[in-house]
Specification:
By secondary structure, the chain is mainly α. 44% of the residues lie in helices and 3% in strands. It has one domain (20-173). The protein has 7 helices and 2 strands; from the N terminus they run H-H-H-H-H-E-E-H-H.
């Protein structure tokens, strides 16, 4: 399904159509199943006791900083279980503590590499809880690509402070009235 705007659709309809396509598609289902299936082994290899709580994001951060030496190294290892399951875990923490949901573009654009990666976003029902201060984006819900959070940790001049992955959870505060992880995905 294309992300192009159709003449007869208003912005809300377009945003909803895109959200629905990104919420349920074979690419996303396959990626989620693969990460869920690899989690137990990943957990054992990396100390066990992963509880999907906010504080566990500090452990993921330490894990990334310990095992990945640079941005180039991260991209070289992006498709390994260590990185992919870590991305899944971070997104699951967002889902379980802030009520976000997984999304992935079913037809990623070659010109936009981030469109091929999974991300988490608050449910469409909370669309109006987030407003773009510049008034440009109709859908201003915060989106988090877990890999992007890892990139910030590894920049040559890191701007990420300790607990940076946990601080990303603060981005959802303006839409907090709809929080909760009741809806399985």
């Amino acid at each position: 399904m294309s992300d192009e705007i159709w003449e007869h659709e208003d912005e809300h309809a377009v945003a909803e159509r895109i959200d629905e396509a990104h919420a349920d598609n074979p690419r996303l289902r396959a990626w989620l199943a693969e990460q869920r299936g690899a989690f137990d082994d990943w957990s054992r290899r990396h100390g066990g006791g992963w509880d999907f709580g906010e504080r566990s994001l500090d452990r993921v951060e330490a894990l990334v900083r310990e095992h990945v030496t640079s941005v180039d190294d991260l991209f070289a290892r992006e498709h390994t279980p260590m990185i992919q399951v870590a991305c899944w875990y971070v997104g699951e923490v967002h889902n379980r503590t802030r009520g976000t949901r997984w999304r992935m573009d079913p037809e990623p654009a070659g010109s936009h590499p981030w469109s091929a990666r999974p991300y988490v976003v608050p449910p469409f029902a909370r669309l109006h809880a987030y407003v773009d201060p510049e008034g440009i984006d109709y859908d201003a819900r915060p989106r988090h690509h877990p890999l992007s959070g890892f990139l910030a940790l590894l920049q040559e001049e890191p701007t990420a402070l300790p607990d940076a992955l946990r601080r990303e959870l603060d981005d959802y505060e303006s839409g907090a009235e709809g929080e909760g992880g009741d809806e399985p995905e």
